[in-house]
Amino acid sequence: MARRRPGNLAAAGTPFLRPVENSDMDAHVSRSSVSGRVRAPPSKSYTHRAILAAGYSAGALVRNPLWSADTKATARAVERYGGGVDRASLKEDGTLEITGFDGRPDVPAEVIDCANSGTTMRLTTATAALADGGTVLTGDASLRSRPQGPLLDALGQLGARAESTRRNGQAPLVVFGPVDGGEVSIPGDVSSQYVTALLMAGAVTTDGIDIELTTELKSAPYVDITLDVLDSFGVAVDVIGGADDGDVASAGDVVSAGDVVSAGADGFCVPGGQSYEPAEGEYSVPGDFSSMSYLLAAGAVAGDPGEDVLVAGAHPSAQGDAAIVDILDRMGATIEWDRENGQVRVAQSALSGVDVDVGDTPDLLPTIATLGAVADGDTRIVNCEHVRYKETDRVTAMAEELGRMGAEVTEERDVLTVHGEETDLTGATVDGRGDHRLVMALAVAGLVADGSTTIRGAEHVDVSFPGFFDALYDLGASVSRSE
């Protein structure tokens, strides 16, 4: 177990124990060093899909789920559609027992509130098209500003009535089903979650769904995560024209961008009439590389000299964000991934700027931008326009918030360049903008900035990594909170 070093606590506030959900909170991070062992949280992307897949089944156990604000929203949606989610065993053995609706969702008696979870909204909007009646889905102000139009259009092609109440392609959404399946055309460069939604729902339609991509698929590894989960639940999907035409991704086989099954795909075919049946009635969620990226970055920029940060829970899976290991290696970090034991070791290193294409790994942009602010030379993050359509415009947000800390940054529509040699990070008050990934990336920057950094909206880490600040504290970081 990682050790605590109470002498490293920041002067302001109190030690940063896990925040109370939905309470307003600031985090205070001072220049400090980290070392020791820490475990990555379970994957948010896998957990969303596993909970919904269990909902589509007659029932299943989901082991080691991430129980966060976002995944709770997906669990609530499963319940609205007639499933049941027994949370009692979470504290005992880390298991969710889910009673599914067996491919036939009820018409919800209440509005489905997806809170801040775009994944929940997109995946369960397709579920709504299976129900024999109307479903209303909404979320918070941030979620109501995110694009849903291409998915609504695709459901319309299948015969559903799928509308934005404000006629702007954004939530609140109203969907009337049921659909039997069919053929759809949809862009691949706005959100891979549209494809995931159609694949998951299509398997339990009568006729299945054939998906034609009208533009290049961005974030392809996230579709591979979907294929991996579907495969584990006994659902078959054909990839049309991808890196391995006709293949399905499976855990352990997809560990680098070159192995992404969905990369270059022209479309997908999911036969109908299938059943969700995981082996032995259960599914285990792997560790989360998106969340792991902040811990690895912390070790690379703020590690104790001569000591390592060891991150456990890093077993290979279909997650594209495992690319953070290669990115750190290319930047000059001392890093080693023991795939068999699921551990990554990283040590404080002199980093150099590199070019990184985030077309398939949009969630890594905040981490890479922070690394670029510490590295020598320029770090160019390219192919990043789609990262503007997340919880916030992460391209502009990282440019502005790192700029408050003294970073020199050049922002273009599809490129973010961080000029590390011209940057001296200084503690400042920055705004997490309601985005969990911004909060965590800025906290890493605070570890190497002169003085103290205050991050507003720190409670939003609950979306994907509720114990993030606890983990930093356990590694020795000077971190505290105030409400």
Layout of helices and strands, plus pairs?
Layout lengths: L13 E2 L10 E5 L5 E4 L4 H13 L3 E4 L5 H12 L3 E3 L3 H4 L1 E5 L12 E2 L4 H11 L5 E5 L10 H9 L3 E4 L8 E4 L5 E5 L5 H11 L6 E5 L6 H13 L5 E3 L26 E4 L11 E3 L4 H14 L5 E5 L10 H8 L3 E5 L4 E5 L7 E3 L7 H10 L3 E5 L11 H11 L3 E4 L3 E5 L9 E3 L4 H13 L3 E5 L11 H7 L3 E5 L1
Parallel strand pairs: 3-16, 4-15, 7-8, 11-12, 19-20, 23-24
Antiparallel strand pairs: 1-25, 2-24, 2-25, 4-6, 5-6, 8-10, 9-10, 12-14, 13-14, 16-18, 17-18, 20-22, 21-22
Helix pairs in contact: 1-2, 1-4, 1-7, 2-4, 4-6, 6-7, 8-10, 8-12, 10-11, 10-12
What structural class results from the helix and strand content?
alpha+beta
What is the CATH homologous superfamily assignment of the largest domain? Enolpyruvate transferase domain
Distance between the termini: 29 Å
Largest beta sheet: what is the strand line-up? 1-25-2-24-23
Low-confidence stretches: 1-22, 248-258
CATH architecture of the largest domain: Alpha-beta prism
Main sheet? 5 strands, mixed
Question: What is the CATH domain class of the largest domain?
Answer: Alpha Beta
Q: Regarding quaternary structure, how should these chains be classified?
A: single chain
CATH fold description of the largest domain = UDP-n-acetylglucosamine1-carboxyvinyl-transferase, Chain
Instruction: Supply the number of helical segments.
Output: 13
InterPro entries: Enolpyruvate_Tfrase_dom, Enolpyruvate_Tfrase_sf, EPSP_synthase, EPSP_synthase_CS, RNA3'P_cycl/enolpyr_Trfase_a/b
Keywords: Amino-acid biosynthesis, Aromatic amino acid biosynthesis, Cytoplasm, Transferase
Enzyme class: transferase
EC number: 2.5.1.19
